[in-house]
Each structure stands twice: as structure tokens, then as C-alpha cells.
Amino acid sequence: MHCRRGADRSGVVIACYRIVHDHWTNAHAMEEARQQGFSGFEVLMQCYIQHFHASPTPRYVPDDPSLTVAALF
User: Fold this and answer.
1) Using an 8 Å Cβ cutoff, are 56 and 36 in contact?
2) pTM to 2 decimals?
3) Cα separation of 73 and 54, whole Å?
4) In the chain, where are the structural domains located?
5) What one-character-per-residue DSSP string does the chain give?
6) Rg (CA), the chain
7) What is the pLDDT of residues 37-51, one digit of tens each?
8) Which of 18, 59, 65, 72 could lock 29 by a disulfide, CB 3.0 to 4.6 Å apart?
9) Which are the contacts of 14, defined by CB distance < 8 A and separation ≥ 6?
């Protein structure tokens, strides 16, 4: 990531992405975040990564155009 001041926030997002998309373990995602400069001082962010889990059922939005917001009015 390019933003040094946002490295911890960006690290959380990337770690969660790795867990959901790449099916990484939380520990693996946390290790990568640390290797990329994730701060050890951000305890709450570390806890978030350690306890994050992907939704067991993916959200599905049908392609039915009658279900658009405009159809409600």
C-alpha cells in the first residue's frame, strides 16, 4: 500500500480480503500484515483480524430489474 499513515487500516482491509477471497487463515493474514509494516500498537485492529470470519452464506442480489430502488416508488 502507498499510504504510510494508513498502513494499519489498509492492512486490516487487505488481511480480511485474504481471509475471504484467498481462503487464508487469520494467522496467515496477520503474518502478512506484520511483514508489510502493520503496527504492533494497533491492538484492536489486530483483534479484528484475529477474530474476523467470512460470512458462511454469500449475499446474493437477484438480477431482476423489478427489485431496483426505482421500482419501489
Assistant:
1) no
2) 0.69
3) 34
4) 1-55
5) ---STTHHHHHHHHHHHHHHHS---HHHHHHHHHHTT--TT-HHHHHHHHH----SS-------GGGSGGGG-
6) 17
7) 888 888 999 999 999
8) 18
9) 1, 29, 32, 33, 36
